[in-house]
Specification:
The protein has 494 residues and is mostly helical. 75% of the residues lie in helices and 1% in strands. Strand 1 and strand 2 form a beta hairpin.
Length: 494
């Protein structure tokens, strides 16, 4: 790599990656402010404003031609902006939900928002990395931040257990990931995704290359909660603060899938991994949905639901076509809105003072009548997660199942539809408890507290619900994501 013009290109590179740079700087500023004025309300406001500005910046560039920055290490514009927009959306909505929730559980520390900003920077780097070294740096920046956020409530044994389990298993998966990068470099002589793809096209593949790809997939499957690397998900989601759970279940999963899409699209022959992805997708969909049925805790149920949705996205990737990749990317936008909304409602209904870890679904009997806003927004989220039209979840499943059918994976698409039908049972069970059960019909104590709903939290829920309706009726963004995988888009990269 010729670094002769590194300083001359630095201003242009910084401008191209301005949202990422802005959030990194704001994270450092938040640490400094909090050190002089502990837990000041200015820190969450600073984080919210920064995430909003970065989101608007990326939103204006989602139709721009693809480009690269920092000597091709990261992508900019087009695909990268769309990925960053989803990550920033998840982070911004989570920050708005975090303020009231963390204040209620007496853990609204300024450091939380600085770590969220650093985690978001890592996610953006991971999701747009065009080089395996950048992928690894983004992955570790994101992961270390999430380990800390998971154990935020240090006086709760469930949170500490979750953080330790996440850290130990995450470190183990990182070892596989890093070794896979080393093997791929040994087989191709490059870390750059485009150069790896060119080397494979020119010289073919080898056992060393496929061994590296296999280890790399292990790392990705862990980060996106695909079976059999999902073991950490239910425990971590259950033990972490609920709004933080919403953040890690959406933004981090978007970054992981976005990076996996780039690796598959640019560096790995699709024919070599199609069957592996299809089998993992099948097992992930089926096992995630079956295990979710047995859960009585809503957070744990949504954790297994998250595993199942990772399987749906893998169906699109198993197709190995531009349409499949674009459908997976579109699905992550829908999934972010659904899950942020669902975890937001559960956070507002939390009353056990243990992060919802021991709170059962039946304890919320009749809450839909006592809190109509929470009840009816939850209706939208549950129906959308189930895949019912006219909500966004239906179009998201069409976007990933359709390309699988076109690629001859009809059996996988049928299994996906059947898995979605199974999921309707436990999603709609939530609504049955909310609206059709009374206190006298359940055998557990029912919370009858006020459950205050702050204006900012209500606004987040309404925005998520409204966006799911709009995206379900007008799925034009799917056409935009398809343009990111055209031959012209790849040729435009420097």
């Amino acid at each position: 790599m010729d670094l002769t013009n590194a300083y001359a290109n630095l201003p242009a590179d910084l401008l191209a990656s301005a949202p990422m740079v802005l959030l990194a700087i704001l994270g450092l500023v938040a640490v400094v402010i909090d050190s002089f004025s502990n837990d000041t309300p200015w820190v969450p406001r600073l984080a919210g404003i920064g995430l909003g500005l970065a989101f608007v910046w990326e939103l204006t560039r989602i139709a721009d031609p693809a480009g690269t920055a920092f000597y091709g290490m990261i992508r900019t514009g087009g695909y990268a902006s769309f990925v960053n927009m989803i990550i920033l959306l998840g982070a911004g909505l989570s920050v708005e939900l975090c303020g009231p929730y963390l204040s209620r559980i007496k853990h609204n520390y300024g450091e939380v928002y600085a770590i969220v900003l650093f985690a978001t920077v890592g996610m953006m780097l991971l999701g747009t990395a065009n080089n395996l070294v950048a992928v690894f740096v983004g992955l570790e920046t994101m992961s270390i931040s999430l380990y800390i956020l998971t154990g935020l409530v240090r006086d709760d044994e469930g949170a500490i257990e979750s953080a330790l389990k996440y850290f130990l298993l995450g470190a183990f998966a990182t070892g596989f990931f890093l070794y896979g990068i080393a093997l791929i470099y040994g087989a191709t002589g490059s870390f750059d995704l485009m150069e790896i793809g060119a080397a494979v096209a020119a010289n073919g593949t080898s056992v060393l290359f496929w061994a590296g790809v296999g280890l790399l997939l292990v790392g990705f499957f862990f980060k996106v909660s695909a079976v059999p690397f999902h073991m950490w998900t239910p425990d971590v989601y259950q033990g972490a603060p609920t709004t933080i759970t919403g953040f890690m279940s959406t933004a981090s999963k978007t970054a992981g899938f976005a990076s996996l899409i780039l690796v598959l699209y640019t560096a790995v022959p699709a024919a070599g991994v199609t069957q592996v992805l299809a089998i993992v997708a099948l097992i992930t969909m089926v096992l995630g949905n079956i295990l979710a049925i047995a859960q009585t805790n809503v957070k744990r149920m949504l954790a297994y639901s998250s595993v199942a949705h990772a399987g749906y996205v893998l169906v699109g990737l198993a197709a190995g076509t531009p349409e499949g990749y674009s459908g997976a990317l579109y699905y992550m936008l829908i999934y972010t809105l659904m899950n942020i909304g669902a975890f937001g409602v559960i956070a507002l209904l939390e009353w056990d003072e243990k992060g919802g870890r021991e709170q059962t679904l039946d304890s919320l009997a009749g809450i839909g009548h006592r809190k109509p806003l929470l009840g009816w927004t939850m209706v939208v989220f549950m129906f959308s997660l189930s895949g019912f039209p006219p909500f966004g979840g239906f179009m998201g499943k069409v976007a990933v199942f359709g390309p699988a059918i076109d690629s001859g994976l009809i059996w996988l698409a049928i299994c996906g539809v059947l898995a979605s039908a199974i999921s309707a049972y436990y999603y709609l069970r939530v609504l049955v408890v909310f609206f059709m059960k009374t206190e006298d019909e359940v055998r557990v104590p029912v919370a009858t507290g006020a459950f205050p709903v702050p204006m900012t939290s209500a606004a987040v829920l309404v925005v998520c619900a409204a966006a799911l309706v709009v995206l379900g009726v007008y799925p034009q963004l799917l056409e935009l994501t398809e343009s990111y995988f055209s031959a012209a888009s790849v040729a435009a990269l420097p």
